[in-house]
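User: Can you predict the 3D structure for this chain?
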Amino acid sequence: MSEMQDQVKQDIPMIAFVACSGCAAGKKRFSEGCKSCADAVASGFQRGECKSGCVGVGSCVSVCKQGAMSIQDGRIVIDREKCNGCGDCAAEGVCPQGLIRMIPADATNFIPCSSTEEDEETVRATCGYGCIACGECTRACPQGAVSIVNNHAVIDYEKCVGCSACTVRCKKKIIVDTLHDLTVLKEKVAFVRCSGGERASAKYKELGIQDCREAAKLDAKALGLCADGCCGQGSCTAVCRYGAISVVNGTAVVDPEKCVGCRDCTYACPKHLITMVPYKGQKLVPCISSASKEEKEQVCASPCIGCEDCAKNCPCGAIYMEDNHAVIDHSLCENCHMCQYVCRNNVIKELEVPEYIYRQREALLLEEEGGNRS
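Assistant: Here is the predicted structure, written as structure tokens:
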């Protein structure tokens, strides 16, 4: 780099940034008995904790002369108005995990993770904010500003122009984007393929079970319940960082406007009932039971009975039968209402999308056919 380039870089206002937003590195445990972050790291991590994350003792807070750093709910928070970019907190030896970086003060995109873990499922189980190093952001960035370093994504702010490409493509939706709304910038949202978990939820609560994984281990048929339905104990709600999924009448329900498509809930469901569907107006079948019509009607008030009426009457050929329940091919569905008209049990749901979402998707060129509104 030339002397002139060095001078330009030095003249850019900088601000501190903590490349970790999670609480998976034993923060609560360390805060009770460690005098410094270095002591915490030296004492070692326990099974299931993130070995690369912030330990939250606050050594960086104590060196900040501007009072720009504080610990809030176990997280290091930086007051952008107070931080003058001195770099004291990022100096060698302050953060033993090397999590504090100096970045341009006008930066708008941030990746708050420094995990070096290679396994995606381990990352998801450990931390909701963990980068899974899928590489979608690197492939999407038109400026080549994002790269994978030690199994987590890193932004080169000399190249970043603050577009929404990495934000949209991030599978975990952990990229902080101060210019764009994550609840709008999404291609897919979660959908629970069950609408009749009320009986199961009530039964499991009666048995004193409060965890979906524990409920899934029981013989549902022996209990007179649907073997494929929602347990209704909220394992999915516990991992959702956006409050987009809740248990209503014993069944998990996703609010598509709040959901950002991170997929954490799909990993949390022991029955694999939650799937990702395109965020556009379309029809959905909330049932994956392979039982017979008679068996379904005995255990559920709203099952797909496999009558095939929807498949036979779909003008687009978008519906087919699989394991005794209807499945909709989203690439073919044109969002007409024929399947809903002919469904005997009124099972088929509609994913309604606000009109402004269509305009947003067109502006971002996310529609495959140039913003075609089916």
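The first strand starts at residue 14 and ends at 18. The first helix runs from residue 3 to 11.
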